[in-house]
């Protein structure tokens, strides 16, 4: 996984956490749901990139 991808995924996760917290604080269910969805998408991307890294490491040996 490239450093840019790691940063992008982490930024999306942090943004999601902020949206979720703001949604909780303001009783805005839509914003809260968007935050949860952003976090899930970021974690899914991170998992996919980890699989790519593992496969690359296995084939490089």
TrEMBL record:
Protein name listed in UniProt: CsbD family protein
Classification via InterPro entries: CsbD, YjbJ_sf
Annotated stretches, region: Disordered: 18-61
Compositionally skewed regions (Basic and acidic residues) per UniProt: 50-61
All residue ranges annotated as the CsbD-like domain in the record: 5-57
Family, as annotated: Belongs to the UPF0337 (CsbD) family.
